[in-house]
Structures are given as C-alpha cells and as structure tokens.
Write a structure and sequence with these properties.
Shape: globular
Strand order of the largest sheet: 3-2-1-4-5-8-6-7
Distance between the termini: 33 Å
Helix content: 40-55%
Number of helices: 9
CATH architecture: 3-Layer(aba) Sandwich
Radius of gyration: 18 Å
CATH topology: Rossmann fold
Order of helices and strands: HHEHEHEHEHEHEHHEE
Structural class: alpha/beta
Number of strands: 8
Length: about 250
C-alpha cells in the first residue's frame, strides 16, 4: 500500500498550497466553515466524555484538529499524515500537538499504543479494498480500553468529490467496523443536507459587496447549531460520526 494514488484516492495529498483548515471560520455559513466546526464540536464533546490521555489523529492534514484536541481536551496528541507539506504546515501552526509523516501500517509495526484514535474525514479517501486493512492496522494501535472516533460523509452526499472513493450508509460503516473488530458504542448524525443547500441558495442571492448581511449570517449560524448540526436520525444527515471501542475491553 505504498502507492498514494491507490491507497488514498485519485489525487495525491501533497497538494496543500495553504493550511486551509486554519482559515475556516465557525460563522462561515455560506461556505464550509460552519459545517466543519459543527462536526469538530461534536468530536470534542465525545473526547470530553472519554477523557483520553493519548490521542492519535490519523490523516491529520494541516493539524487544526490535532492542535484543537491538545488545547481543549489536554490530551497528548500525535498527528500522522503521508503528505510532507501537510505535516510541515501542521508543525508550523501548532504549539502542543506533535506530528510525523508516516504510513499507518509502519506506525503499527512499532507497537505504539493510544487511548483513542481520531479518523476524521479520511476513510472516504481510501480505496474500498484497503479500508479493512486500514482499520485492522488502526486496531493494533489501540490499547485494550481504546476508543475510535470516526467521521465519514454519508450517502446523503450524493456527489462524490474527485478525491473520494465512496460515501457510507449507516449499515455500511457499522458492518465494516464490526468485521474488523470494533464495537460500535454510539452513532451520531451531523449536518442537515437541506439546510446546507438552503444556505448555498441564499449565498447566490444576497452575497454582494454593497449590503452587509452580517446580522443575517449570525442568525443562520445560530439556527444551524441549534437545530441542523446534530440530528436525530440519518435521514437528512450529511455525515456520520461513530464512537467505537477496540473490542478488547474486559
């Protein structure tokens, strides 16, 4: 699995021109920022519940999530990615989290152990034939009471990006995790697809350089986090967030 094109999608992941995740703002309801911080907030809430001492951020990119976990949760965080430039950006932008450019399988051979692994918006970039081996390597890195926090786009996101191999239904992702030895503890449903489309429609109408719509944006952001970020079912959810255990608990 040394070929990036095979393992991680149709694009290579050394295409980081900027540490773009650090530029995403919570109030950017007309862009990706509000949705992004919506699922980051849910992941942080899960981490506050399980209180891990040592977290592995797999596919950490430019390090925004790893550093946020280190700052807000207080865990020791190691971020790994195969992109040289992503790791360099992460090291440049971060103060607390640590990083390494390495393949997951190579890290697994070292015998390192973590309380928790965060795999945030990564699995969709991996070829379907390699998802199970990826998760098995991940399982080797978790201790007997270890947790996995995984987020993936759901099949409600009908359009695949060029660098996505697949999106996941609840049944697909739970089956894959169970087959590779994980025990599902909780499934959360994030980002109302309809509200996202509505805001994109508004963007085409009202965003201009003449009128300041800051007040309207604040209302839309508040509505999003109150009603449309964390949902009760998968019916309209654009993203699935799973908390699982290593399955090795006694």
């Amino acid at each position: 699995m040394r070929d990036q094109q095979i393992e991680l999608g149709s694009k290579t992941f050394d295409d980081y021109a900027l540490p773009y995740h650090w530029l995403l703002k919570r109030e950017d309801i007309f862009g990706y920022g509000t949705e992004y911080w919506g699922y980051i907030n849910i992941i942080l809430d899960l981490l506050r519940c399980i209180k891990p001492k040592k977290v592995l951020d797999v596919g950490c990119g430019d390090g925004l999530i790893a550093e946020t976990i280190a700052e807000q949760i207080g865990s020791e965080v190691i971020g790994i990615d195969i992109s040289f430039r992503a790791i360099k950006f992460a090291e440049l932008m971060s103060r607390k989290a640590k990083y390494e450019q390495i393949y997951l399988e190579d890290l697994a051979r070292r015998g390192n152990k973590f309380d928790c692994a965060a795999v945030v918006e990564v699995l969709e970039h991996i070829h379907p034939n390699h998802c199970a081996p990826f998760l098995l390597n991940l399982l080797k890195l978790l201790d007997e009471s270890g947790y996995l926090i995984l987020s993936v786009p759901s099949t409600k996101h009908h359009r695949l990006r060029d660098d996505h191999f697949q999106h996941f239904s609840t049944e697909q992702i739970t089956s894959l995790l169970s087959q590779t030895g994980f025990e599902i503890l909780q499934i959360l449903f994030q980002h109302h697809i309809g509200y996202g489309h509505f805001c994109q429609f508004l963007r085409t109408i009202i965003v201009n350089n003449i009128i300041d719509f800051t007040f309207l944006k604040r209302i839309l952001v508040k509505m999003y986090f109150c009603k449309y970020n964390l949902l009760n079912s998968s019916e309209k959810a654009g993203r699935l967030i799973i908390l699982a255990s290593s399955g090795k608990k006694v």
